[in-house]
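Subject: design request, 89 residues
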């Protein structure tokens, strides 16, 4: 028959094994996500390197025409933040 201390040690060992298994699963998931983000960043960088300034200007212009209210609010917010930062001297 197991003593109370032996049961506690066995429970602690079991808990440790479950924690290690969970940590391994978490690490594997993190590796997979990191690989996905790395690939995505490479794609974005490649696209950015192959995009001309004229293409960016067209895309921004199209966005502004499609979303004038949001564009105006974004510009106002950016102006407010920049003005606040500059005036803090």
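Subject: RE: design request

Done. Sequence follows.
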């Amino acid at each position: 028959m197991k003593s109370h201390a032996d049961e506690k040690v066995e429970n602690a060992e079991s808990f440790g094994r479950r924690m290690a298994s969970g940590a391994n699963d978490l690490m594997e998931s993190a590796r997979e996500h990191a690989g996905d983000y790395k690939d995505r960043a490479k794609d974005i960088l490649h696209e950015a390197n192959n995009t001309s300034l004229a293409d960016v200007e067209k895309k921004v212009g199209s966005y502004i025409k499609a979303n004038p209210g949001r564009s105006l609010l974004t510009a106002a917010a950016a102006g407010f933040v920049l003005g606040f930062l500059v005036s803090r001297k």
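Helices lie at 4-49, 53-66, 68-87.
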